[in-house]
Design a protein that fits this description.
The chain is mostly beta strands. The protein has one domain: Porin, CATH 2.40.160.20. The strands form two sheets. An eight-stranded antiparallel beta barrel has the order 1-3-4-5-6-9-10-11. A two-stranded antiparallel sheet has the order 7-8. The N terminus is likely disordered.
């Protein structure tokens, strides 16, 4: 019983502390944000056919980048993001090939200001993705010789996350994002469904 009372007391104290935090420690209207992030990109099949009996895939690898946002109101914002992944095309008969992936996004962001330092949000938008293979992939589809090169295309994304404001200006950001890639190679291309999980640190001014 004493243990239950202690837990209840601590929970109540925590709730009071959160409510006591200044309302300014959240997203504010007519402010700008910059943040840097790093995390993991989870890949998908890169072609819709097997090449020399193997299925090329965009690997799971690190991703990192920079974001800039402008908050029109306490809820609505617009954000541009530049991301990079030093990735690989794996599942090839001749071994993995480096594929550096660059993304540029423009997203609408909706914040759920809770009156505390935690601000959940959702976002969605469009962008551009460019792949850079270390060298062409040479193989065969059945008996037909093929050469595959890198390519670029549009991308769509949507995500959820939360910002934690350590101060009125400094915040930390945790996010999970779904990304649709139109293509990363120019032959037998296949749209990719990928996911990204990232942790960032930013500044609101």
């Amino acid at each position: 019983m004493k243990g239950l009372l202690k837990v209840t007391t601590l929970a109540a104290a925590g709730a009071l502390l959160l409510n006591a935090l200044p309302a300014s420690a959240q997203v504010r209207a007519s402010t700008q944000e910059i943040d840097a992030y790093a995390g993991e990109l989870f890949g998908d099949d890169a072609t819709d056919v097997r090449i020399s009996g193997q299925q090329p895939k965009l690997d799971d690898d690190v991703t990192f980048g920079l974001r800039y946002g402008y908050n029109f109101t306490e809820a609505w914002g617009l954000e541009a993001a530049l991301g990079y992944s030093p990735n690989k095309l794996k599942g090839l008969a001749g071994g993995d090939v480096d594929l550096n992936l660059t993304t540029l996004d423009l997203d609408g962001v909706y914040h759920f200001n809770t009156g505390t330092r935690f601000v959940p949000y959702v976002l969605a938008g469009v962008g551009y993705a460019s792949a850079n293979l270390d060298h062409d992939v040479i193989g065969a589809v059945g008996t037909q010789p093929v050469t595959i090169r890198d390519d670029d295309g549009f991308t769509l994304n949507a995500g959820v996350g939360t910002k934690y404001f350590a101060t009125d200006a400094l915040f930390f950001r945790l996010e999970a994002r779904y990304r649709y890639l139109d293509k990363v190679v120019d032959h037998f291309d296949h749209s990719l469904n990928t996911f990204e999980t990232t942790l960032g640190v930013g500044y609101q001014f």
